[in-house]
Amino acid sequence: MKKVTKICCIGAGYVGGPTMSVIASQCPEIKVTVVDINAERINQWNDSNLDNLPVYEPGLSEIVATTRGKNLFFSTEVDKAIDEAEIIFISVNTPTKTYGKGKGQAADLKFIELCARNIARVAKNDKIVVEKSTLPVRTASAIKSILDNTGNGVAFEILSNPEFLAEGTAIEDLLKADRVLIGGDETASGKEAKNTLSAIYEHWLPKERILQTNVWSSELSKLVANAFLAQRVSSINSISALCEKTDANVAEVSRAIGYDSRIGSKFLNSSVGFGGSCFQKDILNLVYIASSFGLQEVADYWEQVIIMNDYQKRRFAENIISTLYNTVSGKKIVFFGWAFKKDTNDTRESAAIYVADALLEERAEIVVYDPKVSEKQIYADLDYLNTRTPEENRRLLKVTKQPIEAIQDAHAIAILTEWDEFKNYDWSEIFKNMLKPAFVFDGRRLLDKESMTELGFNYYKIGES
Ligand code: UDX
Ligand code: ADP
């Protein structure tokens, strides 16, 4: 088995950054270089003030503090890093296609292909190339074909090693991974490459948690894992709508079914809808793959998970509008949270974006507070939808770092992210400062209904009548 001394990762995002930081911390004898074409992002990773890292994750800055400059490096010198490394991880973005065949469903693989061509051009000795990004099944074969046909005659082994970390708990998920999946060819050299990569993870994980499969099973498993998780959220969210009509309580239903060990208790929290960079994209991908193989029933089955999620976001916004006497025009609504979940500054596909969009269409005046998301990001998310002009978005929606001041004379508060700090606010003081009747729409089931009602709020909680 090859002795690994240098690895590199192309793409310094939410996956590449934390993953490589953990590998560097657990494998001090390996030089880990994370490269990106985005110089601003690399500068942020190299910022001496660790509060400025481009990714916020509990525990990440501590790891970067002890490894950066020792065996962890962030750089824009992509070619140099590729040339040096024995193992190259590809961790670039694979957004849903916005054009051409598969538009709105298939993953756009242009960044992956650019990486593969870059590796082929630069590599002067044998390399193991690892797909870390989530990719459609059979992408490894496409990468292999590019590398073999445009390379310098050196040997490449392509492995699929999907990342299962969840944002907000990335470091813990990496350090205590339930499993690591490594897919590769069943040939002797493929098996050797799998063992070489496995040896890296064996620095801190027991060998029995490292699963080796063929490359297609590994690629497909990542999509299926995310589809199953998202399906649970959509399933419980569909039931939340029913609970609101029937006086059942969705938390009690979750608890009751979760006690069945076959169902299990995790991932049954009803919410305003799932977000994040993976769930929707991966399901759309699954839908596209199934339909391109002529499996329309399979495609329709999984698409329903997304339809239900869109319904949940829309339902939440519509409930705010109808509860506020069917008009939100000119009314101040304060959003607590913008990130797609707590403990991250990531906003991709966050439910908050779509709820805001629906309310802004009704000319609500929104003020957003999120402890970790920047003003620039919030406006970028809204502008990207292209529903209104950037000027209108800035006129109707303001961003604040002072949540308590923001609620002065507000008609309503909508909780969009389950940040812990919201639980500790002085809600009686908040009540005093709001217009009456004061409404709270809790899209994360964060607060206690009885105490909120006692304080005088008109309190609406997803999944309760
Ligand atoms: C997910 C997968 O969990 C992870 O394994 C994969 O690698 C990437 O995609 P992530 O998107 O970071 O991770 O976060 P996750 O914790 O899965 O939450 C996704 C969304 O579902 C969030 O918006 C979250 O608020 C929502 N959610 C999750 C619920 O609404 N209810 C739940 O019970 C769980
Ligand atoms: P993820 O959540 O999967 O980590 P991100 O979008 O956060 O995705 O990060 C992907 C990163 O990959 C971005 O910082 C982007 O600049 C980088 N990237 C994309 N294409 C290339 C490329 N050809 N070479 C180097 N970096 C790239």
Automatic annotation (TrEMBL):
Domain of life where this protein originates: Bacteria
General function of this protein: Catalyzes the conversion of UDP-glucose into UDP-glucuronate, one of the precursors of teichuronic acid.
Domain called UDP-glucose/GDP-mannose dehydrogenase C-terminal: residue spans: 334-449
Pathway in which the depicted protein is active: Nucleotide-sugar biosynthesis; UDP-alpha-D-glucuronate biosynthesis; UDP-alpha-D-glucuronate from UDP-alpha-D-glucose: step 1/1
Keyword field: NAD, Oxidoreductase
Catalyzed reactions: UDP-alpha-D-glucose + 2 NAD(+) + H2O = UDP-alpha-D-glucuronate + 2 NADH + 3 H(+)
This protein's name: UDP-glucose 6-dehydrogenase
Record EC number: 1.1.1.22
Active site per UniProt: C278
Family as reported in the entry's similarity comment: Belongs to the UDP-glucose/GDP-mannose dehydrogenase family.
Molecular function terms, GO-annotated: NAD binding; UDP-glucose 6-dehydrogenase activity
PANTHER family assigned: UDP-GLUCOSE 6-DEHYDROGENASE, UDP-GLUCOSE DEHYDROGENASE/UDP-MANNAC DEHYDROGENASE
Amino-acid positions noted as binding NAD(+) in the UniProt annotation, renumbered to this chain: 11-16, 36, 41, 92-96, 133-134, 167, 278-281, 348
Any single GO BP term: UDP-glucuronate biosynthetic process
